[in-house]
Amino acid sequence: MPTTQTHHPKPNTVERRWFVVDADSVALGRLATLSAGLLRGKGKATFNTHQDLGDGVVVINAGKVALTGNKKTQKMDFRASGFRGGQTFTHYGKLLQEKPERAVELAVYGMLPKNRLRDRFMRRLKVFRAAEGSKIYPGAIVV
Fold first, then answer.
1. Does position 139 have pLDDT exceeding 90, yes or no?
2. Are 25 and 67 spatial neighbours (Cβ–Cβ below 8 Å)?
3. Which of 8, 11, 38, 128 falls 20 to 30 Å from 86 in CA-CA distance?
4. Cβ atoms < 10 Å from Cβ of 94
């Protein structure tokens, strides 16, 4: 009876591609889901949950991302400095005007697995406020 063996690719043999995602009038959650899947490499035949086999993602036009429902006024970004009274709450409407890159990064960060690989995945996520002046990687695939 033949035995089957699981193939675990070596980290130096992984073929990484770059995907350019245009966030213009795309819902923030759908954008984050797509980006997280690409960063993890879920579309590849060699996908393993415990290995970093994913691709890179460049998000352009982050300032034009859409929020559905009442999220602009009800959803809050929370930061804490560590000092007493150092909590900062920001409505997502204001966050999208001032730092849309942070809103996209937080959404993708929350959709990645909570383990040691998350920081590796986030290193391959590049977010730009607008399309002008953004660095498009050579050979990138536009999604």
1. no
2. no
3. 128
4. 13
69: left (phi over 0), alpha (psi -120 to 50) or beta: left
Identity of the amino acid at 42: K
Distance CA 59, CA 102 (A): 12
Partnered with residue 80 across adjacent β-strands are 87
CA distance 43 to 38: 7
79, two tokens: 């930061």
Distant-in-sequence, close-in-space partners of 27: CB < 8 Å, separation ≥ 6? 65, 66, 67, 68
**If you write DSSP's letter for every residue of 59-111 in order, what string do you get?**
EE-GGG-B--TTHHHH-EEEEE-SSTT-EEEEEHHHHHHH-HHHHHHHHHHHH
Backbone conformation region of residue 26, classed left if phi is above 0, alpha if psi is from -120 to 50, else beta: beta
